[in-house]
Design brief:
75 residues, single chain, 2 strands, mainly alpha, two-stranded antiparallel ribbon
Amino acid sequence: MPIKYKIDILAELKEAGYSTYKLRQMKLFGERNIQKIREGEVLNADNLAKICELLKCQPGDILEYVEEQQENTAE
């Protein structure tokens, strides 16, 4: 996927006082969304907005577009 995280989301959240335990306890994110973040999967807009709210940042601060290289399949 060409959209990737620029930062380690969970590390930044932890630094801001939101451990994965606290995120689950406060019902901010469920285990599936936390796992998606760990795996580098981009979350939906509502969850990205929640991350931006918690980190006091803009989506562009945490996401970037990385052009995918196309493989040559001509033989």
